[in-house]
Amino acid sequence: MSFNFTFFSILVLGILAVSLLYTWYLTRQQKVVEGELDSKIEKPVQQHAYLRNPIFLSYGVFFALVLLIILFVAFNIFR
């Protein structure tokens, strides 16, 4: 195996592990909602609704990784 393949494999596994642990941590933090469907939104989330939203964060990371993969393949093909 080449160094690049090994490096990117380890990087991807690390990102997956951090994502899994972060998701597990967030789900453990959630409180059971008693009688209400909506709960109070914290002040930092209200101020930065898009930056603190994990869905938008996931999309941003995904597209950044796709761009890096495209650039990596393009540089290796046209070398």
What would the average pLDDT be, to the nearest integer?
A: 80
Radius of gyration: 18 Å
Helices and strands, in order, run as: HHH
Please describe the biggest sheet, giving its number of strands, its sense, and whether it closes into a barrel: none
**Multimeric status of the protein:** single chain
Strand proportion:
under 5%
Overall helicity: over 70%
Weakly predicted, low-confidence segments? none
- What structural class do the secondary elements suggest? mainly alpha
Please report the number of helical segments: 3
Count of β-strands:
0
* Distance between the ends: 19 Å
Spatial shape: elongated
Task: Characterise this structure.
The chain has 79 residues and is an all-alpha fold. It is built from three helices and no strands. It has helices at 3-29, 43-47, 54-77. The radius of gyration is 18 Å and the shape is elongated.
Please outline the helices and strands:
Blueprint: H1 3-29, H2 43-47, H3 54-77
In short:
With 79 residues, this protein is an all-alpha fold. It has helices at 3-29, 43-47, 54-77.
List its salient traits.
single chain; about 80 residues; mainly alpha
